[in-house]
Amino acid sequence: MKREPVGQKKIKSLFNVSLKKGTLGHCYVLEGEKGMGKSTLAKYLAKMIVCENHTACGKCKGCLMADGETHPDILYVLPEPDKKNIGVPIIRDMIQQVYIRPYEASKKVIIINNFEMASPQAQNALLKVIEEPPEYAVFIFTVASEKELLDTVKSRCCMLKLQPYTKEEIVYFLENYTDALGEKLEFAAAYCNGNTGKGKEIAENQEFTLLRKIVFDAFIEFIDRKNILPLSEVLKKDDKGKANDVFDCMLSFLRDIVGYKIGLENRCINIDYIDKIKTASGKVSLEKVLSSMEKILEASGNLQRNMNFNLTVTQLIFGSLEELHG
Ligand SMILES: [Zn+2]
What we know:
Helix content is 54%, strand content 7%. With 326 residues, it is of the alpha/beta class. It has two domains: 9-161, P-loop containing nucleotide triphosphate hydrolases (Rossmann fold, 3-Layer(aba) Sandwich); 205-325, Up-down Bundle (Zinc Finger, Delta Prime, domain 3). The longest helix is centred in the last third of the chain and has 22 residues, at 240-261. The termini are far apart. Zinc ion is lined by residues 51-53, 57, 59-60, 62-63.
């Protein structure tokens, strides 16, 4: 029996109640950033729907087939191989299958993960079927941000935003799905901002630990000696994913400085760096640290909006962060 995914109680209970009352809608969108477990949740909700008891009991035929991804009434819509998008032909093909009645369950569930891969044309091709779906059809889409959806699609769907996982949920998740123990587990749980995927990555990935060390050392060098080179070296390569990890590291370092400055050092996340954080906190003012954090968040947002990489990074390092010294 597959385990119930951790957390997201509100969404699970919405499905549970709607299934019991027979008021389940036709079209749901699960929205949440990468690593939040959207596709795992979508799979679980589909299992609830096809379960003979509507509880995802894990024991009935429906559940067993759902777990094995062999249930004939759960349809996964995938992008074309080698292409990273879902085009009109895929949607048309899916629509044809939607009109075939379910074989085993009373409902037919159509899951499209990473719906941001669907082109505007593909989303348009979908409109009619989600507006007037066959009575047995339930669509579940997952998407990183609702901004990726056409308004016309959004208005026909029930939008459900995944909530950040609580500390207890993250710890439970890491204990059960990674080998991390003790300090490493604690650190990953504290560092991941309520995102289980990120927590797992941090717990398992040596690269992140290494990157954090490089960024912290570069930051300390900057605060100690006003030497900007190591920091610009870390951010030299035009790599948005890495830049975001670097920004996260910087923010976490500065957050701990703030914690230290306002007497909440017991809340510091980077416990292994506590001495260096203490030293650094004596060299910068609270006001400057807070304004630097704002600038980093701004730079991170600019990269998300696809602003020029070098410009954003240069502005951040040579403009805003210089202010730290005041
Ligand atoms: Zn079941």
